Amino acid sequence: MKELVFLLLVVTEASHRGCEKGCYCRGDLRFTICSRALFTQLPRRVPRSTELLDLSDNHISIIPQRSFIENRKLRVLLLQNNSISVVEDGGFSELEFLQKLDLSWNQISSLTEGFSIGLASLRELQLAHNRLTTLDSTSFVHLDSLQRLSLTSNAIHTIHVRSFSSMSTLRQLHLEDNRLTSLQSGIFSMLRSLEVLNLAENWINEMEMSVFKPLISMTLLNLSDNQLSTIYFKTFQSIHTYSTHILLKGNPWNCDCDLQRLFRKLQSIHRLFLDDYYNLTCKAPPVLQDYRLMDVDTELCIAETVTVLIITVTVVITVLAAMLMGERKRKKRKRGSTGHSRTSCRMSRTTETRPPPLLLSEMNHSSQSVLFTLFTFRN
Q1: What does DSSP assign to residue 294?
Q2: The domain spanning residue 160 has which CATH number?
Q3: In the prediction, which pLDDT does 15 show?
Q4: Distance between CA 202 and CA 205 in Å, rounded?
Q5: pTM, to two decimals
Q6: Which domain holds residue 91?
């Protein structure tokens, strides 16, 4: 019995050899668990054989350069729920086999180019619940193998065009609960393998028509709980995947006839599935507030169409009548000018055949002289 107890003590001691106080090391499983150990900095004694290192729920504030030089075999590194605000360039540079890095629930406000050095094998990066505001072309430069990226619940309001340029293998991108107001064409241009794009709970009120066109593998697009009041048909028509499910509920839709016609056209595209169409509610016009879009009476749109047609016909008739009256006046003026010219011609001809007034008066005077002479001769 004593020998058995001694053997257990030896095994336990061996399993904890080289393990930091406050950590639990399972050499047989290659796990080192240091969660809730009240660490303010990274532990120094972590077994070199460790493949999973859990440092969550501590008070670590900085990741110094080359912090994990003794732990090159790490495949999973959990650092969530600490106070990390600084990751020095090359802080993870020795982790060439790392596949998952969890930095969620920290205080990281920016990502430098040196942040991702050495993470060429990383497949999953968790950065949710940090303080990021901007993503630029240097944020994720070296993440060539990344498949899942979570940026949920930050304060991101700007994404530059080449922010995801190195992520040709990315399959899931989570950007929900940020401060994006618009989506510019080109920000997703290199994400040809992306299957899930979650943009829910932002402030998006406009999207350029070709913003989703490069996403040839997308199966789920979540745009729920944004500030969209209307959308362009071509924005979704440009999605050319075989089957894409789209979520749009929780937006302040302006339920005019144009929007109804647009959704009818979208539903006719067989490769697109509006999964929550029956839950879309109206924000405007005021008389339709809180109505479901599908319940809005289509007769309103028919009446609107008839009214537009009546107005259009009236305008056309008015224009034609004005043109006809104008044409009549023009012809009348033309006839008047023609008659005047004919009268002028007659007068000119008469003037040519008659003697001048002076000659006529002279002829009358001569005739009177002749008659007077004859009369005098007879007497």
Answers
A1: G
A2: 3.80.10.10
A3: 44
A4: 9
A5: 0.76
A6: 49-306
Name the residue among 199, 200, 183 with its Cα closest to residue 250.
200
Structural domain total, the chain: 1
Q: Is residue 103 part of a domain?
A: yes
Residue 131 dihedral angles phi and psi, to the nearest 5°: -125, 30
Q: Cα dist. 100→64, 132, 194 in Å?
A: 19, 20, 18
Question: Is the Cβ–Cβ distance between 233 and 274 less than 8 Å?
Answer: no
**What SS3 state is found at 333?**
helix
Position 214 in a domain = yes
**CA–CA–CA angle 141, 144, 145 (5° rounding):** 140
Give buried/exposed letters for 259-270 (b at 16+ CB in 10 A, else e).
Answer: bbebbeebeeee
Residue 215 maps to a domain: yes
SS3 per residue for 16-40: HCCCCCCCEEECCCCEEECCCCCCC
Identify whether 350 is part of a domain.
Answer: no
Q: How far apart are CA 194 and CA 5, in angstroms?
A: 55
**Whole-angstrom Cα distance, residue 79 to residue 76?**
10
Question: What is the per-residue pLDDT across 263-312, written as a single tens digit (0 to 9) for each?
Answer: 999 999 999 999 999 999 999 999 999 999 888 866 567 645 555 566 77
Token pair 């007879």 is found at 378
Beta bridge partners of 101: 77, 125
* Structure-token pair, residue 246: 């789209």
Q: What single letter denotes the amino acid at residue 338?
A: T
**Phi and psi at residue 366, in whole multiples of 5°?**
-65, -45
Residues in CB range of 263: below 8 A, 6 or more apart: 274, 277, 280, 293
